[in-house]
Amino acid sequence: MASSKHTTAGGFPIAIGALGGTIVGLIVRQPSIGFLAGLALGTLIAVAIWLKER
Description:
Oligomer: single chain
Radius of gyration: 14 Å
Distance between the termini: 20 Å
Strand content: under 5%
Largest sheet: none
Structural class: mainly alpha
Shape: elongated
Order of helices and strands: HH
């Protein structure tokens, strides 16, 4: 039986962080660093959402 508790998806901030970081990285000519920074920021946001929902 499915739980009636609604949860927030944490993958969205990870994806947006990776894409946004890559775009910003392309602007400053460092796409790899931008991707990694965006991925890290998105992961931190996803973990914060997970901890809040827990």
